[in-house]
Amino acid sequence: MPAMAKNIVVVSGGLGVPSTSRMLGDQLGEAARSALAERGLEAQVAAIELRDYAADIANNMVTGYAAPRLAGMIAQVTAADAVVIVGPVFSASISGLVKSFLDVLDPKSLDGMPVLVAATGGSARHSLVLDYAMRPVLAYLRAAVVPTGVFASAEDWGGDTGGGALADRVARAGRELALAVEGAAPARPGTGALESLPFEQLLANIRPAS
Description:
Layout: E1 6-12, H1 20-38, E2 43-49, H2 54-63, H3 68-78, E3 82-90, E4 93-94, H4 96-104, E5 114-120, H5 129-140, E6 144-145, E7 150-152, H6 160-183, H7 199-204
Parallel strand pairs: 1-2, 1-3, 3-5, 5-6, 5-7
Antiparallel strand pairs: 3-4
Protein name: FMN reductase
InterPro entries: CE1759_FMN_reduct, Flavoprotein-like_sf, FMN_Rdtase-like_dom, NAD(P)H-dep_FMN_reductase
Pfam families: FMN_red (PF03358)
C-alpha cells in the first residue's frame, strides 16, 4: 500500500503582489518537495498568503474568536506534516501580520511540527531577525525548527552570484525540512480547544504548598 503524500504548507506574510516573501516561500516548498521525492516520498505543497486573512486575524486578536474562514486556514496549517513560515522584515523585526498569526494559534498547535523559517528584507543586515525574532516565538510554540533559516535581501534576487548563493541556501534548508518530515513521529499531540473552568472549580483545585 503506497504511503500517503506528505503535506507541506507555506505560510507567507508578504503584503505586495507579487511578493518576494511568497516567491521565497514557493522556492523553499519546492526544495522540500524535491528532497522528499529523492527519498521516495511524495509531497504536496500548499501556499497560504496571510494578507488574505488580515482582517480575520485582527478580529481574532480582539475577540478571541476565529471566523470560520480563518479557523479553516489554521486547521490546514496545524494538520500539515511541515510548515514553511516566511515574511518581510519591518522595523528591524518580524512583520506584525506574521506575529499576529502566530499569536492566534493555540500554544500547542505546532508542538513537534517541522518548521522552516525564512524572511525577506532590503538589506542582509536584517538577517538576524530569523534568530532573534522568529525562532524564539516558534520555540515557545515547541515547533521543531530546522537549523537553516533562509534570509533573502534585495541583492539575492539579482545577479549571478547572489542568485546562486540563495539557491544553495534554499536547497540546504529544503533538505533539512525533508529529513525532519521523514523522521517525524506519525502523529503529534492533539490540540483540542482550551476549556474554561468555572471560577469555583479553579479555586477548589488550589492546594497549599507543603
